[in-house]
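Issue 218. Parser rejects a valid record. Input:
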Amino acid sequence: MGTWVKEWGTAILACLLLAAGAAADEVHLKNGNRLSGTLISLSEGKLVLETDFAGRLSIDWGQVERIQTESAIEVVLTDGTSVKGTAAPDAASGRLELWLTSTTAAPLDLTQVTAINPPVEPAVRFNGRINVGLNKASGNTDTETAHADAELTARSLNHRVSTGAAYNRASKDNRKTEENMLGRLKHDYFLTPKLYWYTSGLAEKDEFKDISLRATIGPGLGYQFFEEELMNLAVEAGPSYVYTNFDSGGSEDSVSGRWAVRFDRFFFEKLCQYYFMNEGFVSASDTSDVFMFTRTGLRFPIRDSFSLNAGFEWDWDNQPSEDTDKSDYRYILSLGYGF
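Output the parser choked on:
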């Protein structure tokens, strides 16, 4: 009797151990290999699988043919929607069935899946940057230049508020040769994960361009092609009201068209970041009345969120005030801090 009980107990224990070992997620690759473990996440084209034999593996999502999970996962699709369910391989290669309930399954192409088990995002995310540059030369000619700019962005699921400001000052032989300041404020409301409606405002002061105050405000549409840690790209267009008050006296206003492009991208495994921003306005009543702002350059991260920056700025006004130039150029070396 004791022997019989012992044998059956051993058999039951073995079955339980085999069942426990079998209760694992599976990843089938296009080369025929099959991996088992616990599916952790999919982000930026990399599937992370926790295995007993090699720890965490990072797998190129493009090499995955099918997946199967024992427990529910959250799947984010290309249109921004997310669904939860248990993944089972479809009969067709490159597809899966996501079982939302015990009787309801949603067939999906793997190409539709952009993320799995994304991290929980805070209701509002903040990020920003502060840059400061100073230069002084003395001797036969004494020159001083100073630059500072800052930007702050608050992002929720459907809203984004961004603000920024910049200040430049220069002197030569104790005589001021440049002083200007610029401020921006913009609100974006996302109609879809990519398309958004914006309201944008700008204020500028530059005594060397004879501008006591130039202010713009207006709505428009924008499209966010990319919004990621490694790359961002957005374009915008819409009408804008432009008011300019001159230091020499008088003022003018007009309805204008506004365009804007904003792009940044890391290269060489975050060795440097290229950035480009262009914003311009063209008068609806006189298409030769155009002014725009361009900012571009490279940021080189160093440590603890600090960076060394090499930037180029170009302000262009096709119809400047009398005795002022159309273009202002600035080459800026600065120290930045991002958060």
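Fixed in the parser; the record now loads. The domain at 125-338 is CATH 2.40.160.40 (Porin).
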